[in-house]
Each structure stands twice: as structure tokens, then as C-alpha cells.
Design goal:
The protein is of the alpha/beta class. It has 2 domains: 174 residues, no CATH class; 88 residues, no CATH class. The protein is built from 8 helices and 12 strands. An 8-stranded mixed beta sheet has the order 3-1-2-4-5-6-7-8, sandwiched between helices. A hairpin with a 6-residue loop joins strand 9 and strand 10. Helix 6 packs parallel to helix 7. The longest helix is centred in the N-terminal third of the chain and has 22 residues. The protein is elongated. 20% of the residues are buried.
Length: 283
């Protein structure tokens, strides 16, 4: 594991101190950039590093990182009153391996650094197992400082997040696990619509139709409404973006029957004959 902590920080217009602290420079840039976007912070912030000489010694890691955070906070605090501190960091910051937690970031070791100020800690890892271990460690102890533990994944279905309320009471905490699903939720509009389609559909051999956007004719299976003839099916559109009623309108479109076409031709012939018999009707 890298033994250098990359840190970017800035003070917002309402005197909130934001600090991003990661052992990968790109992760640090990404985290700070998101904070800057959300809170209108200076682009790039102020960049510093903290070198850990021996990352197998947890106490040394703790001492070096906390001292660096104090170096950041103290000059700012000498000029203004910091209203709040937000820290985003690796949950295994500069430890000897990915599965070793930086316990001083999870427990109340930062109390001396933050004092009695409002504090938000968001600790992350790209490995779900590491986040799980951090959650277990936090819940097994009665720590006072609130915390957010989450994966670095930006895809919501894969994200696992644990949030501790501002009271720090483990009994009042909640955990949100979002599991990846390949199908719509059971009670969603689309799910209900698809089930309704299956109830009324009878499989058959479709007429040859021109498939949208491809410019070629292709046989496809279609939905045939019972007791109705001459039903043509257009290719399914993206059902996730439309209402079910719209989906049915797009799927089933009646076309004129052969009898209707024949009747229309007969009427046109009669009208033409009438124009010949009565010149006043001619154009």
C-alpha cells in the first residue's frame, strides 16, 4: 500500500473546512472535485502530502496523519471561526495492506483535532469487504463521533453505505444495502405492465415487418389480441422510459382488413361513376 497521504483542502464561504485525504492522488482529486462542485470551493484547493515512514506501525500512521490535519486547521482557525469540518478519506489510509483499517479514523481519536465542532466523516474503500469490516468495528464500539462508511463505487446498485446519526448511538443507526438487480422492481409500473402483457399475449408467427432503424425485413414474434385479425406489431421501444398504456399503444396497431380495402375501392368506383352521370359533381 502507498505510504503517502495526498491531501486537498479548502474553506467555504460559510467557513466550513473541507478536507480530502487519500493514498492515491487521483482519488484525492476526484473526491475534492466533488466537494468543490457541491459547495462552490476553489478549484483544486490547497494540496499537501503526509509521508508515513513505517506503514506497519499503526500508531505512527495515526500520529503523522493527525499532526498534518492539525497543521491544516490551526492557521485557518487562527484567522476565523471554523463552523464545521468535513473529512473524506480512505478507510484504510496508508496502512500496510488494503484489508487493514485505519482505526484512528473510525474511532474517536480525532476528537482532539475537531474539538467541539460539528464534524462529518466519510470514509471509503473500493473493496466491499473492507467497508463491511469497518462497519462491524464501528458498531461493536460505542464511539461518539458520527460517521459515513461507503464503497467508492459510483454505480448505485453496487453501493453499500452505512450511516451513523449525529448522536453516535449505534442503536439509532441505519444501514442501506442496495443490491444489483437485472429486472424491474416487483411492484413497478413496468413490471406490472410486462406481467399484464403476458396474460393477454398469444404467441404466433408474425408477418414480415420492417424493423425500426435497420432498413431490413425480419420475422419477429408478436402479441396477438384474441378474436382480432390483422394485428401488426412494431418493434418494442425502450419500455423503461414510457408508461404501460403507451407501451400497449406502440405494441399493437390495427391495420385495415382486406374487406375494408375492398369496400373502399367499391365506394371510390361508385363516386367516379356518379361524377360521370352528374357533371355538376365533377371537379
Amino acid at each position: 500500500m502507498p505510504s503517502t497521504a495526498h491531501i486537498r483542502y479548502a474553506l467555504s464561504s460559510n467557513n466550513e473546512l473541507f478536507i480530502s485525504c487519500y493514498h492515491e492522488p487521483l482519488a484525492c482529486v476526484g473526491s475534492y472535485s466533488e466537494l468543490a462542485r457541491q459547495h462552490n470551493l476553489p478549484k483544486g484547493g490547497t494540496y499537501v502530502t503526509a509521508k508515513v515512514d513505517n506503514n506497519e506501525d499503526e500508531e505512527e500512521i495515526k500520529k503523522i496523519i493527525i499532526n498534518k490535519l492539525k497543521e491544516i486547521k490551526n492557521p485557518i482557525e487562527a484567522k476565523t471561526i471554523i463552523s464545521k469540518i468535513t473529512l473524506t478519506a480512505d478507510v484504510n489510509l496508508c496502512t500496510k495492506s488494503r484489508d487493514v483499517l485505519a482505526y484512528f479514523l473510525i474511532d474517536d481519536s480525532l476528537t482532539d483535532f475537531y474539538g467541539n465542532k460539528q464534524i462529518v466523516r466519510q470514509l471509503e474503500s473500493g473493496t466491499g469487504k473492507v467497508v463491511e469490516e469497518a462497519i462491524k468495528y464501528y458498531k461493536a464500539n460505542s464511539f461518539r463521533l458520527p460517521i459515513v462508511l461507503k464503497t467508492k463505487s459510483i454505480t448505485p446498485p453496487k453501493d453499500k453505505q452505512y450511516y451513523s446519526s449525529s448522536t453516535g448511538d449505534a442503536a439509532s443507526t441505519k444501514r442501506k444495502d442496495l443490491e444489483e438487480t437485472a429486472t424491474p422492481p416487483e411492484n413497478s409500473l413496468i413490471s406490472k405492465g410486462l406481467k399484464k402483457d403476458k396474460e393477454v399475449i398469444k404467441k404466433g408467427t408474425a408477418p414480415e415487418v420492417e424493423e425500426a432503424g435497420r432498413g431490413k425485413r425480419k420475422k419477429i414474434e408478436h402479441s396477438a389480441i384474441p378474436e382480432k385479425d390483422n394485428v401488426i406489431v412494431s418493434p418494442l421501444i425502450n419500455s423503461a422510459t414510457i408508461e404501460h398504456s403507451q407501451l400497449l399503444d406502440e405494441i399493437v396497431r390495427p391495420i385495415p382488413s382486406f374487406k375494408d380495402n375492398k369496400l373502399q375501392s367499391a365506394r371510390e368506383a361508385e363516386q367516379q361513376d356518379e361524377k360521370v352521370i352528374r357533371p355538376d359533381l365533377a371537379v
